Amino acid sequence: MEVVNDHLVSYEDSLKKGKSIKLEEETPTVGNRERKPSSVYNSPYATEFGSGSIGKPKGGRPGSCAFGFGFFNVIDDVQAKSFDQWFKIGFNDKNKVKKFKECHRKLKVPLDFVVCQIDDKMWFYDLLTGGKNLSCSHIDVCFYYLRKKLKYDQSVKISGNTTDCFFASQIFELYNEFVASGENVDSIKKDSKAAAYIAGFYMLCNKPWAELDFVLMPVNVIVLAHWILCILDIKMRCLKVLNSMRFGRYKNNSESFVRAFAVIIPILLSHVNFYEGRKDIDRSSKHWQGKKDTDAFDIVVVDNLPQQEDSDCGVFIIKYAHFFMHGLIDKIPKKLDIAFTRKKLCVDLFVHAKKKELGGYESTSEHPGRMP
Question: Pick from 87, 235, 330, 343: CA 20 to 30 A from residue 102's CA?
């Protein structure tokens, strides 16, 4: 399997106890946000999405979310038709090399998903097509909107947050330093970017972990080109691993990669004085007995999850996350309709971006600032 890691980090070696991960970090160039034309808010449900007229942005809408409040609903026929019409312009599936004519592949006005700007239809092709691995930008966009649902959607059943791919890269970098230091807790910097995530800074639409019970973290096991979902259960002091390929090296290497999170996160929590304000945590329970704040978390593998049959692991962790957010992880179907899920992700994201473009507004940045 091949994954296009177009975001920030690539991992070369499997993580094992006492061994570091070889890590290369590349920060992408971030262009200026393009203003979206249109002076009239046009409904995306009955339009071919023409260029519209030029107007001023109408301002931010902090609660606006690509997945709205109906992720489990069927795909709207009119929205699906609008997406299909747009997607099929210049598309030739019989061409194994160039799926789109170049003049139609690149978008003159990038689709704005806040955490990244998408100007290539191939991004949607990879998201739509069964068996195509998802890139970091796919994961970051989807988990950004899941993060917004956690923040604004009243139907969500848990107090939680998500992270992004850069957070994972920071954890692995800190783990390397920890191993190189002979596992010295003091080697973990208190002002690291990962600590800033935990304190509620750095990441868009972030919340302080001191206010949460769960944190949903996408992790790329790069040696396998495989996505897994790690869920930090703060009160039970453990990391839950949701893996759509639980056999052989996909099981063993995935759980080895999780060790970096299990080791580093407790140290970071201690650095930001996390436990001082958490009077709701019963530290006399079995999960805490005999544990120091900086001791590694337990790792718990979640069983009875639907398993992938093709290279669809990225779609599976998005689906796992959404069921978990709504308190339905025990009710997740034994077999997922991946074709439906991929299509719904594409339609929801496309319609949301076009509503912003044609409505002439930009999402508020929701940037929490820098850690003091």
Answer: 343
